[in-house]
Write a structure and sequence with these properties.
Layout (H helix, E strand, L loop, with lengths): L1 H24 L2 H6 L8 H21 L5 E2 L8 H8 L6 H20 L9 E3 L5 E3 H27 L2
């Protein structure tokens, strides 16, 4: 179990180390013009990853002192969160740093997790129970999913 979490925290760290300089080097046209299948540009995808870190931070902390948790699930409101926060008009470098440091904090939480609380769960908006352990193990997959979307958008720009 602890080994799995080490792989997760190392994976998050590696993504930050590889992607922070790549994200910083992108020009305004690349981060604002290219759209994925959800019609999100790179700035909006990175903003979504900040939202994900923010929501998972809350859940990971709260589940260490609650056996079961009813906590709002923002998945059905992702686009609304992106619109309200107007990520496409954010300062790009500030957004990168917010993403970076929020993920470094997620690593801190994972490193300090109470292993006795790993079976504690929250219920998502569809009624599914998600344990703290499942949340932690799924975090890196979600991060990779959206980093890969960013990579595809960057690469699509190179072919045009």
């Amino acid at each position: 179990m602890k080994t799995d979490f080490i792989k997760i925290t190392k994976g998050i760290t590696q993504i930050i180390e590889v992607w922070e300089p790549q994200l910083t080097s992108l020009n305004k046209e690349v981060i604002t013009e290219r759209r994925n299948k959800q019609n999100r540009n790179i700035m909006q995808i990175l903003g979504h990853l900040v939202d994900s870190a923010s929501n998972n931070h809350q859940r990971m902390v709260r589940l260490q002192y609650n056996k079961e948790l009813v906590f709002p699930d923002y998945r059905q409101d992702n686009d609304l969160w992106i619109t309200i926060q107007n990520y496409q008009e954010s300062n790009w470098n500030n957004l990168i740093q917010l993403w970076k440091f929020y993920n470094l904090h997620i690593i801190q939480i994972i490193n300090q997790v109470d292993f006795l609380a790993l079976k504690n769960s929250w219920t998502d908006f569809e009624g599914n129970k998600v344990s703290l352990q499942e949340m932690i193990t799924g975090y890196l997959d979600h991060l990779n999913l959206h980093i890969n979307e960013i990579k595809e958008l960057i690469e699509s720009d190179k072919h045009n």
